[in-house]
Amino acid sequence: MSTQEQTASVAVNPDDFDEDGIDVKHFNVARWIIGYLAFWIIMSIGFAMVSQVLLPQRIKDMGAANPTAVLGTMTSIGSIVALVANIVVGALSDLTKSRFGRRTPWLFWGAWFTLAFYLLMGNMGVIVGVVIVLWLSKLSFNMMNSPIYSTVSDRVPKRYRGTISSAIGFGNTLGLAIGAYVGAKFIESVHLGFTIAAICMFISAMLFIAIIPREPSNKDEVVVNKEGSAWKHIVYSFTPPLHAPDFWKAFCCRTLLLLAIQMLAGYWLYICQDYIGLPKVTAAKVVSTIAIFQMIASIVAMFVGPLSDKIHKRKPMVVLSAALAVVGFIFPIVMRSITGIYFASVFVALGQGIFMAIDQALNVDVLPSKENAGKDLGFINAATTAGQSAGMALTSIIVSATGTYIYIFPIAIVMSVLSVFFVLSIKSVK
Question: Which of 100, 107, 105 is nearest to 218 (CA)?
């Protein structure tokens, strides 16, 4: 064997790579955990400030006759925008070639656009303007989120996906809790709250780019595009993965459970005001307390991912999360009081935290093709956006039709139970 061949054999050791060709030997799991935590905690703070407190209150302050219907309509159409954006961005990032890699440019520019749209949303003087800017922010927001999710498939070894998924879930749950708490403090200063939220969204992306190892340049790589052109690839991006039943079972599980959870999480402020009958300031204080419970729940959920990696099982964690959420949905029915809301928020937060800690690992495990990871993850991660936005839309429809929030709780229970049937039917994951 020549010296050159010996060097090559030493430089490329098959044992250093997992079955997906990802370098395991040089993977700094701590650095990646810190990067994901920085992004998800700070980004979720900004997102929750707006979605859970500032935007609902802004609509009321602008004099909407039926704020529940307005918020529901905004978010339902926004969910369609987000769903399309998630899929298209994921597919186009698969084709992107640059010296910064294929995901980083989308994340970078998505952060700038999101900063601009959030600032603009907080300063719009008419409801129509707020609605349009919200939809634009859904587009830019998914320019950030879609590449982040794809990095799990691209660059995280399979043995660490549960741990990384737990970091994502923990960061998301903790950030949402902090955001709801902080947002409630700006119930009387909505404009300032929007500004802080916008800065959080921007900083989160920049920190992620700065912390994780730089994405390798793919400028000279041959990117395979079976469709022949970017436009055709965009059309192709809306072609769902075929002959992948486990993929769709995971999709349905995720959509249903997040839909159920968001039916409450997106309306805590209104539930406190209109279902329990609390005044605005008191309702904001209750939302702040709920946020504290969510923070505690996020700490518990932090251990789920590493445990899943250790026992090599995902499904039991999903079943547990759904069961906890169901318990939470029962409390407002039997205890129509602040105490009932507090109990509900604790169990729902635990269910959401555990699910978010494990679902990214589950999603990547059921991907039918690594080559189309961005596109396919765009579909399954659209379940997050669709579940969050459609949950609020569904609540709006129910409340507008019935005049009460009482019916949203049993409907959420049914959806959670159905999500369990879907995850248990997955065959390729334990």
Answer: 100
Identify the residue whose tokens are 């698969």.
94
Q: Write the DSSP symbol of residue 168.
A: H
Query: What's the sign of the alpha-carbon dihedral 392, 393, 396, 398?
Result: negative
Instruction: DSSP for 259-305, please give it.
Output: HHHHHHHTTHHHIIIIIS---HHHHHHHHHHHHHHHHHHHHHHTTHH
Residue 199, pLDDT score? 95
Cβ-based neighbour number of residue 427 at 10 Å = 9
C-alpha distances (whole Å) from 98 to each of 104, 187, 213, 312, 377 are: 9, 43, 16, 36, 21
Give 17's strand partners: 23
Residue 269 half-sphere exposure, CB side, CA atoms within 13 Å? 28
What residue ranges in 174-231 does DSSP mark as E strands? none
Token look-up 């793919």 returns: 218
Q: What is the dihedral of CA 314, 408, 190, 384, to 10 degrees?
A: 30
Distances, alpha carbon 164 to alpha carbons 259, 359, 377, in Å: 24, 11, 16
Amino acid at 360: Q
| Phi, psi for 192 (deg, rounded to 5) | -65, -40
Rounded-to-integer distance, Cα 395 and Cα 350, Å: 21
In this structure, CATH architecture of domain 27-217+229-424: Up-down Bundle (1.20)
**Token pair of 392 as six digits:** 């609020």
Q: What is the pTM of this model?
A: 0.67
CB 377 within 8 A of CB 93: no
Phi, psi (degrees; rounded to nearest 5) at 168: -65, -50
From residue 244, how far is each of 57, 70, 293, 369, 430 by CA, in Å? 43, 38, 38, 10, 17
DSSP-derived secondary structure letter, 17: B
What span, in angstroms and rounded, lies between the C-alpha atoms of 270 and 329?
16
Half-sphere exposure of 24 (CA within 13 A, CB side): 14
Residues 6+ apart with CB under 8 A from 316: none
**301 burial level (CB within 10 Å; 0-12, 13-18, 19+):** buried
Mean pLDDT, 10 residues at a time, the chain of 430 residues: 43 54 72 90 91 83 76 74 76 79 88 93 82 86 82 76 77 82 84 92 94 82 58 62 73 84 79 85 82 75 69 79 92 89 88 76 65 59 61 78 88 91 80
Domain extent listing, the chain:
27-217+229-424
**Distance between start and end Cα atoms, the chain:** 45
Secondary element (H or E) of residue 237: helix 230-237
φ/ψ (deg, to 5) at 116: -65, -45
